Amino acid sequence: MITEEIKKDVRKGMIVLDVGAGDLKLAKKLVNKGALVDAIDIVIPTNPLSEVNFFKASFEEIPSILINKKYDMVIALNSLQFCDKTFALNVLLPLFMEILKEGGRLYLETFLKKPTGFFPKIKSFYSLKDFEKFGTVVYGVEDYEEDHKINRHVPVGIHFTDCIIEKPKNTMIYST
Ligand SMILES: C[S@@+](CC[C@H](N)C(=O)[O-])C[C@H]1O[C@@H](n2cnc3c(N)ncnc32)[C@H](O)[C@@H]1O
Q: Given pLDDT bands bounded at 50, 70 and 90, which one contains residue 100?
């Protein structure tokens, strides 16, 4: 799973951004591993953490709060399906790649296709192809299915796309 990849990759002192961070469960684990974590969500977490720098913002507001920021890891798990896809592909993902340091990684987990059960709020679906143009895909899983119990415990089959994109290192080529 992508969270296992994140836990493997994170190092003490890394600067990490978690977009759509929810209840800060992952952010807390990263802080415990010595990372410095910024988190963004439209909903304020019920149990905020003093160690996490939290910003309350919608996806559309994100560009204005990331000016001059640089990160080793940018994470958006289970959240981009709530964002307008055109905005995600034309604004957010290019911005996430821009704020990554060279060699830094973007970790995405989102919905591949419409869930089988009643699930009204989902706006967008993504395949690996949507992400390939942003950098080097170092990990990609498409179309794995998980059953989730939501909406009064009605089971819903969700097909996910998971992807890790690495920002290339800018290697200078000298010719003589
Ligand atoms: C399914 S939760 C995922 C939380 C966490 N990333 C995880 O994997 O457990 C989706 C998160 O996206 C946030 N979200 C939904 N719409 C949003 C929006 N328009 N702008 C910012 N965050 C949004 C929700 O508040 C929620 O915390």
A: very high
